[in-house]
Amino acid sequence: MKGQLSYVMKPLTLVSIIILLVLLLYSLNSYRGRERMAEKTLDLTSFATNILLILANSEDCLAYKIPATQGAYANIVDLKKLDEFSEKYEEIEPDCARNYDFGWRVTVEEVNGESFNGGKTWSFGASDVSKGKAMKNKVEFWIPVAIRHSVNEVNVGRMSITLVDGELEKIAGFLDWSCKMGMLGKMSSSSTDVQISSPITYDRSNNYLCSGNACRKLLCTLIGFEDMKSGGTYSISVDFRSPDKLLVST
Questions:
Q1: Where are the domains of the chain?
Q2: How far apart are CA 161 and CA 44, in angstroms?
Q3: Does the CA dihedral 82-85-87-91 come out positive or negative?
Q4: What is the pTM of this model?
Q5: Any idea what the Cα angle at residue 47 is, between residues 74 and 105, rounded to 5°?
Q6: pLDDT tens string 60-81
Q7: Residue 112 pLDDT > 90
Q8: What are the residues facing 206 on neighbouring strands?
Q9: How far is it, in rounded angstroms, from Cα 130 to Cα 122?
Q10: Are strands 121-125 and 208-211 parallel, antiparallel or unpaired?
């Protein structure tokens, strides 16, 4: 009887050990996956913070420039620049704080009394972002700012950013970077490899690059771009054509 029991128990023990090992490996992989995701989120938050600080403190962006000293106060933004940015950059990020790896949109809210409800709001940057599998990660962050209306009126505000790491942002960023470098005379051609999970199409009538129903405005008009009709890895090559066109092959 003991021999029969031992004969039965040995395979069961072996199976149990294998199951425990599989569970342990799964737990380790899940932990590493969560750790990598946490690192990526931390990196994105760092990028988001830097963008907000540049917007609020660079005179090329929103910072109020003091005529007497030709300098700027920290985190004081100019009302006139806010109005200009919300109109000029309604669909695309401004050059002064552009990041060509990610896409972002910023909203500036002014305090109305003791809350932000009902206060004046300005918004600028990418009008849409990757969705579903095409979005790799997203962070939201904000910093306090002061909004200068005049010498006698400076109000409290909040500058919030939504920063997205996605397939649409990566490809549009590469195309816009190539366009910008071409316009500056620093580069005429470039190439990159991209991996996508969703089709990427080009709306020629509006000069939008689209992933599903999410679309981004481009700096340059694309020539010869062929829609990426299915997921996979693609090689994109571009040649700049003055004044504002990119000859694209995929």
A1: 40-166, 168-249
A2: 11
A3: negative
A4: 0.82
A5: 80
A6: 999 998 775 555 567 899 999 9
A7: no
A8: none
A9: 22
A10: unpaired
